[in-house]
Amino acid sequence: MEINGAMNAGLQGLQRASQQVNEASAEIANAGARNEVQQQGNAQANGVNAATESASETGQSVSANNATDGLVSLQQGETNFEANTRTVETADEMLGTMIDTSA
C-alpha cells in the first residue's frame, strides 16, 4: 500500500534526522570542550615560543571549523526532521480521507 510506504519513509527519515541532530549536538559540545582545554593549555604555556602560539591558533581554527560544521549539520537535521514530519502528516491525512470515503 502506497500510504504505508510513505508513512514508513517519513518515520525512517525522522529517525535519521534525530540521529543527525544528536551527532551534531555532540560535535558542537566536543568542539567547545576541546577549545576550553586548549585555552587552559595556552594559559599555562603562555609566552613559551612563537611556534607554540602558531600551533594553538591553528588548533583554535580547527575547533571553530568543527563547531561551524556541527551547527550546519544541526540545521540540516532540523530541516530534514521538518520535511519528514510533513511527509508523515500528509500520509496521515490521506489515510484519514480514505477511511472517511469508505465509511
From TrEMBL:
Polar residues bias: start-end ranges: 52-88
InterPro entries according to UniProt: Flg_bb/hook_C_dom
Pfam families: Flg_bbr_C
Residue intervals of the Flagellar basal-body/hook protein C-terminal domain: 66-100
Annotated Low complexity bias: 35-51
Region (Disordered): 34-103
Protein family (similarity comment): Belongs to the flagella basal body rod proteins family.
Protein name as catalogued: Flagellar basal-body/hook protein C-terminal domain-containing protein
